[in-house]
């Protein structure tokens, strides 16, 4: 019998780490519908765009002219019930205001909701028109059109140590296209921590240098300026390009010299904190401004930027966009590229919330250092930081432990970080000064003390300091017992534990909206509306307002886009008496059915629809007739929308197609409308135009199924 046996696995002995199967990263489609992750539960508040806020109470079968259909049941004030057909799911969204606030339920049939909606729309329009003016000014102003890639650019990209992820390649193409066009670029790259955003910045900066212009890289912290300087210098060492940086560690004399060189054009790329926005910084010929982690900058810094960048190409890199930035991009006021695919072999960071425990800390430190790694220990109180270092030295006397915080003298702080980078320290005990952008692949454990005192994006950024190689990384959040914490802090820590997959920065930004409320999204007066109508509905109203502004007040600015898009209506509602649903015998679970309906409702192109059909067959077997009809209904809705119909009703073998309820619409002079008239005149003997009150419609007889509907619509669309 062996006593005191110690077991090692082969990968511990040989330092070999198994290839880790990463969960599928979020595809583009999923990225912006993350709100659908918050599945509806009976009892949740929902907002219907036409009727207001009500209570969701599940799916229900209803009988329509002898056929069974499935609808969503929403309860309103005074126990009124509204059934929403599964074809109109996109009209409902889950109510998301500030957590803990209960919305006021509306009354069906009253005009209170319409008034509130119109009031919100008017307010939103005022803000949106300012935004669009800014966008229009930028589009109209002449920037510098960069020349196509030189051989050096190709060489730089080929020398990248890793293989580009698909999203990185796409973002690179987008950036170059923007830079080569005469209008100034304003692109937001939203990618999670460690997903290769800095590399995109280096490529853009070098492209501008190849055209004899200068690049400025604006970063939030002194440390990051130094770190970026190292990264840029390392990447560009084989190319004719000078990189320098300005931060508070440099003496006045050194700073003056750097600025003089910058003005003379002897420095190609300058990296610095908001000091580079100062009056004394003059460029010889600035070509691009790259802003890293823009959520860290205050409003005044951004105002200065605005004056600087009216006609300079701008590239913004961020991991957890602040709601306002995200908003601008979702609204098309700036261009957005999302990087969702993690680099190959990257693993999720194991995140654990625990109570402060010296033994657990000691185990974590030794586990990491014994596999050759390094540890960050974050303690955000400068006063008690030396005590913390002493405690760690007592726990692990054989480890070398360094200390870093923002109040140290410049050269000492640089020295401490440098020693950590050079692996002289095993543990770096520091404040959250390492939060943004410090990239040390060998550090794979981070312990955050008093984690409940940090904000969500701060914690996400700190966690992003580890797990930047193919080793499994750990993040320990030390906090008092959950039961003693205030609600907000508890939710923040739970969110981090919950979203620890790769690329979850986006969900975290969305969740941040939930916990804090969407607040002053576009200025102080906005928050009231969001509390009443919910954030997602606010999004929808915003999109509607933007669309209206594009077709009315700002027709000239968007003339190209309008000519290209030709979408006259934002949506087409379908109402039929046919049996269109996913039968219980096919998918039993109600939540699963709702989830499938919601996914289906979000699909807007044929390849995705076919992929979804294949997935259904794979999971549940051959599709019954009712599900086939559901797919046909979706295809019909898409074509009806393209043709400019707002509503399609099919009952008792008669189909009514409602045209846009807006006589002044440019639609009635469009080619689409003329083609419909031609088709009716020549080919459709069973169709006639009819005006009922304000509604102008096309009535078609003898239509017995959704297949007939699709065939007729395809005929009108010339497909």
Please list the strands of the largest sheet in the order they lie side by side: 8-9-7-10-11-6-12
Rounded to an integer in angstroms, the radius of gyration calculated over CA atoms is 29 Å
How far is it from the N-terminal to the C-terminal residue, by CA?
A: 80 Å
Low-pLDDT parts are 17-38, 515-527
Number of helices: 24
Proportion of residues in extended strands: 15-25%
Return the average pLDDT rounded to an integer. 79
What are the main properties of this structure?
719 residues, seven-stranded parallel sheet, 23 strands
Structural description of this entry:
- The protein is 40% helix and 18% strand.
- By secondary structure, the chain is of the alpha/beta class.
- The strands form 4 sheets. It has a 7-stranded parallel beta sheet, with helices on both faces.
- Residues 17-38 and 515-527 have low confidence and may be disordered.
């Amino acid at each position: 019998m062996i006593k005191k046996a110690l077991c090692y696995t082969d990968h511990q002995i040989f330092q070999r780490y198994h290839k880790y199967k990463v969960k599928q990263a979020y595809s583009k489609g999923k990225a912006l519908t993350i709100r659908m992750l918050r599945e509806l539960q009976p009892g949740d508040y929902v907002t219907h765009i036409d009727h207001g806020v009500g209570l969701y109470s599940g799916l229900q079968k209803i009988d329509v002219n002898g056929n069974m259909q499935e609808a969503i049941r929403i309860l309103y004030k005074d126990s009124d019930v509204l059934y929403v057909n599964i074809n109109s799911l996109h009209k409902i969204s889950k109510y998301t205001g500030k957590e803990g606030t209960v919305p006021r339920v509306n009354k069906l049939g009253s005009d209170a909701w319409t008034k509130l909606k119109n009031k919100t729309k008017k307010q939103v329009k005022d803000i949106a028109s300012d935004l669009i003016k800014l966008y229009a000014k930028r589009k109209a102003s002449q920037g510098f059109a960069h020349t196509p890639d030189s051989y050096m650019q190709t060489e730089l990209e080929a020398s990248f140590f890793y293989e580009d992820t698909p999203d990185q390649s796409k973002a690179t193409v987008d950036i170059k296209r923007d830079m080569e066009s005469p209008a100034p670029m304003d692109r937001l790259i939203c990618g999670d921590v460690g997903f290769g955003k800095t590399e995109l910045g280096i490529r853009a900066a070098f492209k501008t240098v190849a055209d004899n212009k200068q690049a400025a890289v604006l970063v939030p912290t002194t440390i990051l300026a130094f770190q970026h300087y190292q990264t840029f210098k390392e990447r560009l060492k084989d190319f004719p390009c000078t990189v320098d940086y300005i931060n508070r560690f440099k003496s006045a004399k050194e700073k003056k010299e750097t600025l003089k060189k910058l003005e003379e054009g002897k420095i190609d790329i300058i990296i610095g904190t908001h000091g580079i926005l100062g009056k004394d910084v003059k460029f010889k010929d600035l070509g691009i401004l790259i802003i890293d982690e823009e959520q860290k900058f205050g409003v005044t810094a951004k105002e200065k930027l605005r004056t600087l960048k009216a006609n300079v190409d701008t590239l913004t890199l961020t991991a957890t966009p602040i709601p306002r930035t995200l908003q601008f991009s979702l609204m098309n006021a700036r261009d957005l590229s999302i990087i969702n695919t993690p680099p190959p072999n990257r693993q999720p960071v194991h995140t654990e919330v625990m109570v402060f425990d010296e033994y657990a800390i000691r185990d974590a430190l030794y586990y990491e250092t014994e596999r050759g790694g390094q540890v960050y220990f974050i303690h955000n109180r400068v006063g008690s930081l030396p005590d913390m270092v002493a405690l760690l030295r007592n726990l692990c006397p054989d480890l070398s432990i360094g200390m870093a915080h923002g109040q140290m003298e410049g050269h000492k702080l640089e020295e401490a970080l440098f020693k950590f980078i050079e692996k002289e320290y095993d543990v770096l005990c520091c404040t959250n000064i390492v939060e943004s952008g410090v990239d040390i692949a060998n550090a794979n454990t981070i312990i955050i003390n008093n984690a409940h005192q940090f904000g969500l994006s701060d914690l996400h950024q700190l966690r992003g300091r580890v797990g930047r190689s193919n080793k499994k990384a750990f993040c320990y959040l030390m906090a008092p017992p959950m039961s003693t914490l205030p609600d907000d802090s508890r939710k923040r820590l739970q969110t981090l534990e919950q979203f620890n997959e790769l690329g979850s920065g986006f969900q975290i930004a969305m969740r941040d909206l939930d916990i804090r409320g969407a607040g002053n999204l576009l200025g102080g007066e906005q928050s009231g509306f969001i509390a009443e109508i919910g954030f997602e509905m606010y999004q929808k109203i915003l999109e509607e307002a933007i669309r209206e502004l594009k077709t009315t007040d700002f027709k000239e600015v968007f003339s190209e886009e309008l000519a290209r898009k030709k979408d006259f209506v934002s949506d087409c509602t379908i109402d039929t008496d046919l049996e269109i649903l996913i039968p219980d015998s096919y998918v039993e679970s109600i939540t699963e059915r709702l989830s499938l309906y919601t996914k289906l409702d979000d699909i807007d192109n044929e390849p995705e629809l076919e992929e979804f059909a294949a997935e259904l067959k794979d999971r549940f077997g051959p599709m019954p007739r009712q599900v086939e009809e559901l797919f046909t209904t979706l295809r019909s809705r898409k074509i009806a929308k393209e043709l400019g119909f707002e509503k399609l009703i099919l009952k008792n073998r008669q189909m009514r197609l409602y045209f846009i309820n807006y006589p002044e619409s440019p639609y009635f002079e469009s080619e689409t409308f003329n083609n419909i008239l031609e088709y009716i005149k020549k080919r459709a003997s069973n169709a006639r135009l009819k005006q009922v009150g304000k509604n102008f419609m096309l009535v078609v007889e003898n239509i017995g199924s959704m297949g007939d509907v699709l065939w007729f619509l395809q005929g009108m669309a010339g497909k």
